[in-house]
Design goal:
single chain, mainly alpha, two-stranded antiparallel ribbon, 2 strands, 65% helix, 8% strand, elongated
C-alpha cells in the first residue's frame, strides 16, 4: 500500500493537517494580542477583519507553507507575555516593599536588611 502515490499524497495531507492543527491551537493562546494579528496579516498579505476572522481564513493562509511565519509570531507573542508577567511581578513586589527602618543613636534612622534588599534587586535586574 505504501508504494502508491495516493498513499503518499494522503499521508502528506494528513501530516499537514496535524501541523496546522497545532498552529491553530497555539493561535488560540491568550498571548496573541491585536498587534500580533496585525503582524500576521501583514506578513501573509491577508485581508482579514479581526471581528470576522474564521477558521477557514486561517486554513486559507496555507498553514503548511507559512508555518514559519505563524511560528515566529506565536513565539514572539509568548515571549512578550512571559516578559509582561515577569515585569508585573517585579512591579507588584517593589510597590508593596517596605524598608525596615531602625533608630540609630536617636539621631537618625538606618535601613535594616541591606543584604536582602540588594539580593532581591540583583535577582530582578539579572532576570
Amino acid at each position: 500500500v505504501r508504494q502508491y502515490a495516493a498513499f503518499d499524497q494522503s499521508q502528506t495531507l494528513i501530516k499537514n493537517y496535524l501541523k496546522g492543527s497545532a498552529i491553530i491551537t497555539d493561535l488560540h493562546s491568550e498571548a496573541l494580542r491585536e498587534r500580533h494579528w496585525k503582524a500576521l496579516r501583514k506578513r501573509l498579505n491577508a485581508n482579514w477583519v479581526q471581528t470576522e476572522l474564521t477558521l477557514g481564513h486561517i486554513w486559507d493562509a496555507d498553514l503548511a507553507k507559512n508555518e514559519h511565519v505563524f511560528r515566529e509570531v506565536i513565539t514572539a507573542a509568548q515571549g512578550e507575555l512571559a516578559l509582561e508577567e515577569f515585569l508585573k511581578q517585579v512591579r507588584e513586589f517593589w510597590s508593596a516593599f517596605e524598608l525596615d527602618m531602625v533608630n540609630y543613636q536617636r539621631k537618625c534612622k538606618l535601613i535594616r536588611g541591606w543584604d536582602d534588599l540588594f539580593n532581591k534587586l540583583a535577582e530582578h535586574l539579572n532576570s
